User: What shape does this take?
Amino acid sequence: MFKSDRQKYNKERIFPINATGKVESEVFPTNFIKTSKYNIVTFLPLSLLGQFRRYANIYFLFIAIIQSFPIISPLNPISAIAPLVFVLGLSMIREAMEDISRHKSDNEVNAMECTKIVNNKQVKTTWADVRVGDLLFVSENEMFPADIIVLTSYFESGVCYIETSSLDGEKNLKPKSAIKETQTLFQYKEVDSKIQMSMTGNQQLKAQGNPPTPALGDFEGSIHFQNGSKKVLNGKQLLLRGAFLRNTKFIVGVIVYTGEDTKIMRNAEPSRIKQSTIEGVMNKLILGILGVQIIACALSAVLSSWWLYKSFSKHIYIIISESNYTLLSAIAFFSFFLLYNTMIPISLVVSMEFVKVFQCYFINKDWDMYSSKRDKFAKAQTSTINEELGQVEYVFSDKTGTLTCNQMEFKYCIIGDILYGKSDKSKNMTESISNKNNAQQDPAQFKHSVFNFQDPILTGIIENSQDCQRYSDQQRKLMIQSTDKTTTLEIKTQKQLVHEYLMLLSSAHECIAQKDKNSQIVYQGPSPDEITLVDAAMNLGYRFEGQSANEQEFTIKGKQKKVELLSQFEFDSNRKRMSVIIKDNGVYKLYIKGADSIIKARLRPDQPFLGFIQNKLSEFSTIGLRTLLMAMKILSEQEYLAFERQKEALASSENREQEREELANNLEKDLYLLGATAVEDKLQDDVPETIADLLKANIKVWMLTGDKLETAENIAKSCRLIQHDFMVMKYSETDLNKLRVQLSENKLTYQACIRERKKKSVLVEGEALVILTANQQLKREFTKMAMGCDSVVCCRVTPKQKAEVVHLVKNLNKITLAIGDGANDVNMIQEAHIGIGLYGNEGMRAVQSSDYALGEFRFLWKLLLIHGNWSYIRISEMILYFFYKNMIFTVPQFLFSFYSAYSAQTYFDDWYITFYNLFFTSLPLIARATLDRKCLLQKSMQEIKTTLTFIRNQLNILKQTIFTLSNFIFWWGQGFIHGVFVFFITYACFDTEFVNIEGQNAGFATLSITAYTAIIFIVDIKIALYTKFWTCVNVITLLLFSVGIYIAYFFVSNYFRGTYSEFTPIYLIQSPTFYLIIALLNCIVFIFDLVINAVLHEFYSTETDKIIKWRREFKEIAREGNVLQKIEMMQQGKRENGQRDWGDTFYEQILDERLKSERDQNIFDEQQAILDSKAQHYATSPVNLDNSDQSNRQFHQRTELQQIPHPLQNNNAKIINYQMTKQQQQNFNNVNEDSKINHPQQQKMYVR
Assistant: This one.
């Protein structure tokens, strides 16, 4: 039905606008979309080829091939082919189901209908049949079938609105507009409720577009008219495939990009396949095992050749057709290779996939990670790195929308040198942002902004109140001149300044105005900050009503006002500002707002309000408010026309975007400062507690934000990223030499903190970070210092810098996690080992690019410290156990060769070998790896928190304490020794002297099946002993699907003719020796394990053993009373004898908590006394932010109180009385045994 697709066309395109529908040869891709991978013919070969990209599958294919040669293989070929086909079949069935779903989706999309305009008639066609240059008619709520240049809109202004939620997740409507020259190209009329379009005249038009790119907003093009004129196009005229037309009755557009060239397809990257650290180590170990297997095969082959050479003549009954011992040795090598291939388990990879899928299911259905505010569960979007969550060492977090709610409240505004906005009675300017009363609204009712702003003076000025006349008439005398000094705007009074300020807020933005069900104006925009400022202007009487391509409408104090919109420069993370040019009553005005550092650098010299505004911005920063500067400029008519000519000339430029940026830079300078805004973004729920727990769990947290240094520092303190006892080292210099000095000073501070065991944090600005990372020596020194700190705050950083910081740490072999909620966080989310996107208010780009999606930041606690911890432990132990059970199975094969003249005879029957990994031993291990845990669900969340955080702390001190080379060797060695026990004990018991009740000797088959049965019971009992959390699933898989299936097969195999097992099971079940040997082997094996573990715990303690020992010691000390005094005596003895190690800090933390407790009481008493005696009259009063240039006296008085010397800073302070009170002792005794002394947070309960 559809044409085949063409390749991408990556060049600039010029094409005629096809109004006749005539098909011409074209080089552009068709609009046919094909996301499926296979068809009926190609599925089998291509899918198989994909399966053999895995090295494990190649290995087992090689085994199956050589097992098919009778001269080599001692085994039935089917026993190797069947499991390989089973594993490949499962994977190919999954591939087929996924591809069938893709085919259905492709067919549905390609068959969707759209409307073309051909010879002024509307013709229905399918999406797959439209081409570049076709004219399309798109009605309201229709989806665009390709990327389209809008030519005509239903609205006379040319504006139309689109929703791009399917592309970037943003549900806010975006305004697009046709240029004036094309808006009048088409006329329409309604006939029988249907719209008919016709093109005015018979113009021959051409369109031009830049090469297709993935950037959604990137477009440079032009329209070429028949008279030779040309008009520039940009992203405002581009409507994207997959977006919807909203709030607009219809549009007419021309297709510019189709199929693979559309933005949505250019962004459709193949799903990323990440590999966890454990899986990477496992692959290396498999290569090591393969080396051991080759060595064992070579040894057996050499011994086989040696035996033939030395002993063959003595055994005349042996017939050998080949006399070349070298060839015989080579054949023997491959025969032994087949016998020993069970060293590498064929079902390990499939079993891990099953386990990880179940782990993802538990993450997705965890009600503890359900966000009622977002109505979202956590979502695992990749299953390959679950265990990596339990090994995260560094967390990189965005601030806005991640740590904070991204729900802005307009708090203060500065207009000229006057501050407006009053603090409420319960909160003053000296308070930091907290998460008090920060509950977010229901998603359906969520508003990006909150307006509780009150200032009667500002309101009076705006409303011309007589009571505020003296404030309105306050003299300003601000002369704003154009650069050529031919045009001047004189602002004489504060009222005029307020007017320009509020006009700026309501005009310089990218918001659109909509009416809700109650006919109230609702704003939608690219960011909550933008919406908040426009909403504030509306609430202050300057209501933005909407805009077209060349006009803005306002209602100012009840009166309608229109201004001409001439140009607009959008905000982006590099510019950090946005501006508009309007024509207001004949005056050309440029309004601009942006980050204070950016705007300040573009101001004219000698700005009258700059000093006051800078002081206030510093105060705002100390309480974590987000600030912007507002400025303006006047253009003369000649300046504006020159600007327009330069802008039009960009149409023929190859570097159009760069030159447009330069044009904006040249225009946005010599600005006049009007004022500033301060907006509050509150912390999300439980952010401080979550970060504090992560720090205690030895996970370093770095905050990466675009805010200024002071704001970032205060937010960091509010969320406990920087705590009261942290030493903060700052890097803010932008000069290389000064930065070197700052680095040297901080290095001395850092070394002192290490000596005194103080916690430390780094605070670095983006510009300083660029200099530090550009110089290799400075980079090494800074990185070493930052890596040793408990937390790092990077402020004023761009999205690109965020990714570079993550890359810097990632390259040091540290496991990194990045979490954010906006499109500006995508780079760092994709750069980190683990990327987490939050469902936020800035769209779904972060979620779409992430490995895991969460509703709120606080759920990171459970994702890392419970799901991650459990996944790491489960997967690690599963891999170790897989290699153990395969080693115990392979060793008898190896030892049997010494008793069979190295003839490469198999010790076990073919099908017993095949089913060992596939059925008999895998399912109990999968169940354990899916469900095992250390804590019961019945425990309270607080008990689980204290237990798991402490365990996670100890696990992370020495990275990967479970899946290590030493542990692997230990388990593999256990498998080898247990295999030796099985072989020799079975061999010894079933010697030729053994006779059954019928007088028959035990044969080789009896020996083989008895050993096999013993192995099955050993590995099943061992896994049962190591299981800590039992469920019905564990019981069923162990008793029914392992032991039960084996017993069933054991009896059924009695009737398999021509195999070892023929008639053997019946013989064995009648023999008491069979049962005694199995019982004896299990006793010997587990007694051996008990002895080995006792020796290891006594002389080679692991970190877990130390934890158990410390807990036991503490319990014994606690029973005797005088807990802290005894601990101090014990630690003092260890210090004197040089017996300390890192674990002794466990006890020192208890002492520190007691010390802090008594010091805190002293601080409280001392400060309360000072407040009562000297500062009673202002201790609880809010700061009065007056309008003078002088700093507020009360603010400084409270600052002095905060600077009272802190007893905690006195390192010489000593504690004398360590005796616990009766109540403290009672609290200690009441603590649940399972959660005692697991975590420093819990220790407070014992010592206070």
